[in-house]
Amino acid sequence: MSTKRWAVTRYLFMEQLQLLWRTYAFILVAFVILPLLFAILTGNLSHYSFGSTLTDLGIGAVFGFFILVTMSLTYDNFKLFIQNGISRKTYCQAKVINLIGLSFGMEIISALYNFLVTAPARGHSGQAFLDTTVYSLYDHFLGTNLFVNILGYMAFNWIFFIGLGLTGMAIGSIFALLTKFARNIAIIAIPVLGFFLLVFLSNTSTSPSDYNLDGLVNFLKFLMGYHANAQPGYFNPTMPMLTMMVGCVIMGAIAYYFNQKLKLKK
Asked: Is residue 35 very low, low, confident or very high in pLDDT (cuts 50, 70, 90)?
């Protein structure tokens, strides 16, 4: 790794770490400390469970939202680096390296927290905890060895985190090229169009329609790893992981392309 790329990667990593611990500090205060103080002040301390509250924080979900949002913040760092002789290519590469490293470390912390804190606090075994996660569709496919299943769960989540981050980068790079007016229109239009699409799909799936979605449903089942007579827990995780990897490549390519178009604004 070149000196410039390493310097940019390190800067971005330290910046992300600062934002991350502040985010979790805010979550801790908002969902643990403040409810505790409220319970004390109202005399309902007996109804407050510190352990239950702490184990319900969902640090993995918080990180997923965090990485999507922070990786979409593009222009300010671009402006800083381009004014200090860092190329667009170096900035983009450093951002991806930072994303991969940060998401790997966060997935390890999240897994340790889930299996060493949350699962025991809820009285669940490791396998029982896996059965409550999104990965429950695949958590028996690799056999009965818990360690192997946990590794599969971690790999699945890691790829998902990377995909979220790259999606954020792609969105951020595109939005950074838009004028303020165009960004405001997009911020309003995209959720509205998404809502109407959800309504359309919901109405189509619950009422008679001229649209035949059997092909789409079968394709989605294929992407999810469903195979003949497979029960939840025995779906094949290979296909969804490959699908996410392809999505990562596409989002990364979009982010890189639009990142090269960034310009300093007057």
From this structure: confident
CA distance 172 to 10: 21
Model confidence at 191: pLDDT above 80: no
- Give the E-state strand segments of the chain in sequence order: none
Domain assignments of the chain as residue spans, ordered by start: 3-259
Q: What is the pLDDT of residue 189?
A: 77
HSE-up of 225 (CA within 13 Å, CB side)? 22
CB-CB contact of 16 with 102 (8 Å): yes
| CB atoms closer than 10 angstroms to residue 136 | 15
Q: What is the DSSP string of 116-161?
A: IIIHHHTT--HHHHHTTSGGGGTTTTT-S-HHHHHHHHHHHHHHHH
At 211 the pLDDT is: 60
Cβ contacts of 17 within 8 Å, gap of 6 or more: 102
Tell me the pLDDT band of 163, cut-offs 50, 70 and 90.
very high
77, 14 Cβ separation under 8 angstroms: no
What pTM value is reported for the model? 0.87
Could you identify the residue written with the tokens 């239009």?
189
Q: How far apart are the first and last CA of the chain?
A: 33
Place of tokens 């004028």: 179
Contacts of 224 (CB under 8 A, 6+ apart): 137, 235, 239, 240
